Structure formats: C-alpha cells, structure tokens
Amino acid sequence: MASELGTLLRRLRRQAGLTQEALAERAGVGVRTVRGLETGERADPRVATVRLLADALRLRPEEREELLGAAVRRGGDGAPPEPSPVRSASVLDETLADVAEHLAQSVAARWQREEEQRQVQDPFPLPVRWRMAAEELTDHWANIRRLPAGSTHGPLELGGRLDEIVGVYRRIPSGRLVVLGRSGSGKTILTVRFVLDYVRSRARADAVPVIFSIGSWNPTAVTFRDWLTGQLTRDHPGLAAAGPGGTSLAAALVATGRVLPVLDGFDEIADGLRRPALEALNATTLPLLLSSRPAEYAAAVAETDVLTSAAAVELTDLTLDDLADYLPRTTRKSGGADPAATAWDPVLSELRERPHSRASAHLTEVLATPLMVALARTTYSDTPDHDPATLLDTQRFATAAQLEDHLLDSFTATVYRPRPGAGPRRGFDPERARYWLGYLAHHLTRLDTPNLEWWRLGGGLRRPTRTLATALVICLALGLVDCVIGIPFDPLGFQVADGLVAGLLSGVMFGIAYWLMVAAKDTEVAPSVVRLKMFGRAGRTSRKALPRLVIGSLCGLVFGFGYGFVRPVFNGLLWRFGLAAGLRVGLDDGTVYGLVFALGGGPTFALLTVLETPLDIRSAVNPVSLLKTNRRTVAAQLLIWAPSFGLLAGFGAELVVRAMRGPLGPLVWNATAGLKLGVVSGLGGALGYALGLTAWGQWAVLSRIWLPLTGRLPWAVVTFLEDAYQRGVLRQAGAVYQFRHARLQHHLARAYRAPRRDRGGTASAPFHGDFIDRS
C-alpha cells in the first residue's frame, strides 16, 4: 500500500491535471522518483526533492505545508515510516546500499583528482554547451517519456551547458541520454562533471554513476552486464568479494540497478563491433549516458536502430567570445603600455577584425574545441617565449589540419621541455619520451583499446616472443638459484652443470606451461583481486582448494617427471655415462621426482587458495597502487610457497624413496640430498611460478626487462608513466592509464609508425631517434 506521502502526492498531482511524466519534467526530477514516492517504494525522500515537486504543482501554502509535513514523517523525523511491500528495508538492501555509498565516495574522489590534474577549473571551465541532436538520432519521444499507448507527447527541451547536465539528465524519464560531439569537443569533460554533480546530489537509494571506457568492450565476446562487472572489479578490487546469492558485490550492484553506467567513447569501439554493441545496449533497459562522435554513432544507427528510449544532444563549438574570455586569463600580463594586455590580444583582434582571412578561418576552426584550446594554452600560455601569433602563419600552416598537427606535436615537446626550477621531478629527453609514448600509442592501436594496462604492456609482442622471453628469464633465474644454493653441497663443476641443466629444463617446462595457459589463448595474466591473509579469518575460498589441489598435483607430477627424466639423460651424455644408462636412471628419477613434486605442489597450491581473502570493499586503485598490491601479493605467495613446497619436497622425497625402493630397486638418498632438494625446489618453484604465471611476474619479465632491453620503453617504466600523467599526457581511469585524448593517441601512433617504413637512416626520421623497433 502507498504511504501517506504517496497518497497525498498522487491526489495533488491529479488535481493539477498532470501525469507522472509531466510532473517529473516540470520539477526537473526523474519520473522514477515520482513513481517511487507515489507507490511508497522510495522510503527516504529528500526534502529538497519534495520542495521541487511542490513548486512544480504550484501548491497553496497550506497544501505545501501538508506535503512537506508528510515527507518529514515519511523520512523518519517524526513517526516511523510505513513499511512498503514493494521494497522492504532488508539486510540485503542495507548491505548493497552501504557498498554503493563506498563506491560513490571512491568514484567522486577519483574524478575530483582527475579534474584537478587536468586543470579544468583553472581559471574556469571552458564553456561546454549542447543543442538537440538530429531527430533521426533520437528515439520516439513517447518511448523516451515512457508514455502508455495513445498518450499525447512532444519533445523535451534538453539544451543546456556544463553545470546543468545533471538537471537535464533528470528531466529524461527513461534515464537514457546520448551525448554527441566531434573529436575534442568536451565529451569527457562533460561526463566527469556529470559524475561529480550527480554523486553530490544523489540520495542513498539512487544509482552510483561510474565512468566506463566503452571502447574496450567486445560485445561479441562478453555480455554488457558481465563487462560492467569486470570493469568494476578491475577498478575496485574489493567488489570481487562474495555478495548475495554467491555472486560478487560488483555483479550484485549491476544486477540491482545500483550502478548508472556512463559510457565514454562509443566511437572508440573497434570497427565492426559498434552495431552489435548498440544492439546489446538496446537489449537492456538500464539507464545510462553514452558519449560518441556523431559520425560513428550515426553509422551504427543506420545499420540497426537508435539507442532505445534515448534522447540525444550534440555539443556545440566554442565561439570567439569564449576564446576572448578564456585565453587571456591563462597567461601572464605583458607589462607594456597596457598593463592588462597579453600575448593573445593581437591574435584575438585579428580573428575579430578579419574573420574571413585564411589565417583567421583556419585558427577559428581549430580553436573551436576545448581540446585544441587546451593544447594551445599549454604551448603558448604556459611557455613565455612562445608567441601565439605563430598560429596565424599560413606559410607554415597552409591548412587547418596542419595547424592541428602542429599543436599536437608542440604539446609533447612543450610538456617535456626542461624548465628551470622545476624541482626534483625526473627529466626525460623530449625525443626519446616522444618515441616511447609513440610505442605505447601504437601498442594500444594494435590492441584496439584505449586502456593502457600495465599487465598488458607485453601483449603487443608476438606470442612466440613473449614465450621465449619468459622462458629465457626463468632459465637464467632458476639456473642461478640452483647453482648458488648447490655449491655448498657438491663440487663446483658438477653444480655448474647441474644448474645449467636445471635452468634449461625449468625454462622449457615453464615456457611450455606459459604457452598452454597464456600465450596460446592470446591473453595476458590478469592482476589478482585477492590478498593473502596468514593470520585471522581468510575469505571463503575453501571450496576452490580441492580443485587446485588436483591441479597442483598434476602439474607437479608432469614437471617432476620431466625434470627427473631429462637431467640424468643430459648428464649421461655430458659425462659420457652412456645413453642407455641415462635413460634407465631417467625413468627411475622421473618417477621419484614426479611423485615428490606432486606431493609438494598440490598441497602448496591448495594452501595458497585457503589463505586468499578479497580486498576491502573500500579499496579503489590507480595503476601504481594496483601494481604495488599485486607485488605484495606475489611476495606473500613466495614467502608461503617457498618454505611450504620446500618442506614438502624435502621430507616427501624421503618417504617416496623409501616407498619406491621395492619397485625401482636400490635408491641412494640422504638427509643432505633432501635438504638441497627442498631449498632449490622451494625457491626455484616459487620463482618460476611468480615470473611466468602472475601479472606482476609478467610485468617484470616483459615490461621491466624485455621492452627496455629492446629500446621500446625506458628502464624506469613506472616513473615514466607517472611522469607522463603528471605532465598531462596521460590520464588515469581507475586501474589503467589512457592518453589525454584519443586524438593525441592516434597522432603519436601515426608518428611512431612513419619512420618504421624507412629503415634506411635516422636523418629522415628524427622522431624515431636512435631506437629501432623490431616487433
């Protein structure tokens, strides 16, 4: 049954002759809010919302007081609220509401930092305005208004500016909005402002707006809801914890409509996937906000249909007045005869006085988007010895496209320019920095994604190259471990040979495992979303322990047999024992080592599983913190794996040897051999697993060793990426980096590829510098 507030609101609305949709539009709230208040579903009405409804109903003072009084009693300041059969205050609801609150705080803090990093408010935001998009890109207004059949309807007035975006969105009953704008027109700025303003005004029961870079979605491989869940888990690892019904908290938030997807970059979805993406979005009724360039969205619409129940708006260009208000305030005063004059004044005067000249037309066209204005500000406002009058030189810049390329080129050169008094921040040579950025941009282009994920930096290499690099590093690492640890136990010559054999076999074995588990699937090892808790209560992972016990035992059996079999055969050939003798000993040793490693690998793998526990639900990550978290997790795995596996292998060897002396005949074994096997196996096995089969290990092998060794990236990769973020070349989107803008990424990728077509010399390819990419 409806509450007192719901009954009263329905009566007053009918007296005013308004539908729920009409009242919601007039009040500037969502139709779901009106419907929820009338049915009693909304158990916590905000007084501010009720005041908006009262204003829209044009109530008399006594009616207004009656409505507000019912709201206060409903909200809990007076009598306890009437229970609603539609949505009771259950433990489940409260749990998910608390999780959503943590998510909202994390999202707001993240994008507030990002807005500050990008200097959006310095000195004030560039104007971002929009108008209604073409009618063919908008669904039927009856669908947008959620009207029943036969109802009269008309278009909503949805024009506005940046600080009005939430109000405009709330006027749309369907809660589905498409924001169109050409490259650099301010779509991302608008989505960030939408999220910040929406979170600031949301009620506890409202959904949490979360920005998703939809360009990384493959709708033919994963459903929309599953993709949302995966992205939430990546950026907020704590949401991987078990939620209601055995699903993760992230899945529960998506399933219950507590996440409002803000889908940025529909145009960045790979060619051929936009149509199935739009069809998948139309298969859902989730409220959402989608941004795209107009041409790509229109092409997808032409192939299938508009986004169901979605209104569409299109961002407009900046005007000359906008430039005149903004650019002079971004640079220092000239200090001449006119103390208030700046270097931009002559340029702006030229644009006003001779708007039809070729120079003015080109510059006006280029500076019509916030992206290009921001680049011009960086190059000419923030650098005193650069004169913006250069932008009017038609001999250097014969077309608007050349002028845009100049601003893109100048941006990276300017931000990496050494500056006196810049503090302790590490400097990078501009040419090399631009080459490394070009490789990263090229890497993203090959992967068809805007997301620069540290665990996928090696994914741009060919699969055989990745496998060979992994096997080689593991070979060297484990061979060195075997040699160093074995020196106190055996003669140096024997131990060097043993280390060589152990290293080669380990490299081959782990290389095969890497190929079968990772490279053959053309994927990468994803970062762990759990940590290890050695004391206290761990997570609910015991149900995974038995399968991993079996997997660990089988892997140990295969590896142990291979190691035990090949080493005697190799030693037989090396020390001239004879091939037949080596094969006979190899079969015996393979059987023994296979059983030993099976007994050690299975329980150790299961123990790691039992100790896993999800991260705290309040945890939100950036790329560096996620890398550090995974490094700590791998370190904990090493600390557990090495002694556990070592002890099980050392003591297990004694038991296996005793048990196999009957079937295999006399076997020589002693405590010293057990100690050596335990130490070498523990350290070697843990190190091989960490380097080959964890995200941090692959980062260390490919991004910290292989790519810098071949010149594609600097040795200090993390420092370089963080420095690029601080300089404004990259931005952070949760756990990943992205280029400041897709236009900048494509420009750098194109400039990187150009010199690779001419390997004849570096004189014609200064961008390439002294590095050669052989991928």
Layout: helices, strands, pairs:
Elements: H1 4-15, H2 20-27, H3 31-39, H4 47-57, H5 61-75, H6 91-117, E1 129-132, H7 141-144, E2 160-161, H8 165-170, E3 176-180, H9 187-201, E4 208-213, H10 224-235, H11 249-255, E5 259-264, H12 274-282, E6 288-292, H13 294-303, E7 311-315, H14 320-326, H15 345-353, H16 358-366, H17 370-381, H18 400-415, H19 430-447, H20 463-486, H21 492-517, E8 530-532, H22 545-574, H23 579-610, E9 612-614, H24 623-664, H25 671-693, H26 695-709, H27 717-726, E10 730-733, E11 736-739, H28 742-756
Parallel strand pairs: 3-6, 3-7, 4-5, 5-6
Antiparallel strand pairs: 1-2, 1-7, 8-9, 10-11
Helix pairs in contact: 1-3, 1-5, 2-3, 2-4, 4-5, 6-9, 10-11, 16-18, 17-18, 19-28, 20-21, 20-25, 20-26, 21-22, 21-25, 22-23, 23-24, 24-25, 25-26
Q: What fraction strand?
A: 5-15%
Oligomeric state of the chains?
single chain
Q: How many whole angstroms does the radius of gyration measure?
A: 32 Å
- Total of DSSP H or I helical runs spanning 4+ residues: 28
Major sheet description: 7 strands, mixed
Q: How far is it from the N-terminal to the C-terminal residue, by CA?
A: 68 Å
Let me know the number of strands: 11
Low-confidence stretches: 74-89, 536-540, 759-775
**Category from helices, strands and their pairing:** alpha/beta
Mean pLDDT: 81
Global outline: globular
